[in-house]
Request: fold
Amino acid sequence: MADHNRPGRPRPIERLAAFTALAALPGALTTLIVGAVMNWAALVATVAALLVGVTAGWHAVSRRGMRRAMAGLGMVLALALLVAVAFLSDFSLPRFAVILVLAALSTTAARVALRSRGGSVAAAGRPAAKPVRPVLLMNPKSGGGKVGQFGLPDECRRRGIKAVLLKPGEDLRELAEEAVARGADAIGMAGGDGSQAIVAEVSARHDIPHVVVPTGTRNHLALDLGLDRDDVVGALDAFVDGVERRIDLATINGRVFVNNASLGLYGRLVQSPQYRDAKLKTAAETLPDLLGPDAVPPDLRFIGPDGAPHSTATVILVSNGPYQLDRLEGHGTRERMDSGRLGVVTLTIRDAAEAVGFTTLQAAGQVRRFPGWREWTAERFEVRSGGPVAVGVDGEALTLEPPVVFATLPGALRLRLPRHAVGLSPARRAVHLLSRSTVADLVAVFLGRPADRQHPAGETR
Reply:
């Protein structure tokens, strides 16, 4: 039987694009290096300013009072030095333009060469018959009232979908169970990721297709499913003209989540009732207690990928499928959610020097090079502690009794997507020109061989 997920041999235009990408990238790098050598004094001053700025930034978030004020002044001085270097150095506009053009050409060509690497909705899922009794549960307060803004109740009526609005005091899980009991053969949720997880758990238990309608604030699940988060009404087409695929779910102490759970720094930050509405203010008030010189490392004990025990970590991130992470903020995106594996990331920062190193790598999008960074995949992961553990689960603050046990539920959820959806996450579509896997794919395409789509989202480090 033919494997429809296997990409065919590259077309001539894709082979030409691969050659262009491979040729333009060295040109951009060479021009950049020549410019740096010719302006070595400016380069040294820039590096010094960045180090001063990063060091000052760390002290600004981890100290209070006069120390924070002095650190803020240091950041201003570092920025002033960067501006001065930009004005006083022998800046070559033509050279800068060449670098930008070559880099853009290489990136664009690489996207053309590898555009078939990720597959498609049709390849990832199978056509699904239109449900007879579809139901859409809606949280009218989600995302600042998107349900009303997009007129979802009326749109549902036009498509023959029963719309159920969540009223104050009602239990979402009970509404979903009631819909199943009344014969629903497909259930959708118009809400944020926390609501998606609740309804997805019910859908999975009864083996009923689930539809994601992105009316939350961030809608990370929709992003990783390849949905257009701005096309809220278009997501309803999954009920009418959709394809079906299976994805994994994950659990934390038996509770289902669809994206990720964070322990340590972020887990404690989100405990503040003010965090959701005033993130910067809350962080400024809380971080000195968590990162300052008198901070007590969190009691988070776990077994690392090498089997060695660890007694603490600044951050632990466990996700439903591994994330592609170049930076810690935003938690990146996932290439796939059908691997049957959890993604586990731990970050340990022991002192100010390590904090400066991590912040520098974070700014460069190279967090994986930090010595205190570890990432691996697992079917089960356990964290022990001497007391209750603060956790942020899909953006919601929880406090759980230890041990905190994570597990994966492979292929648990039948998912319906609109046929017109991209069906690929940003991580799946991304092209990282400086990575060995991307270069290897480009070489393969240039030589007339299909690109390897099975590169892992994150290797054990």
Remarks:
- The chain has a mean pLDDT of 82.
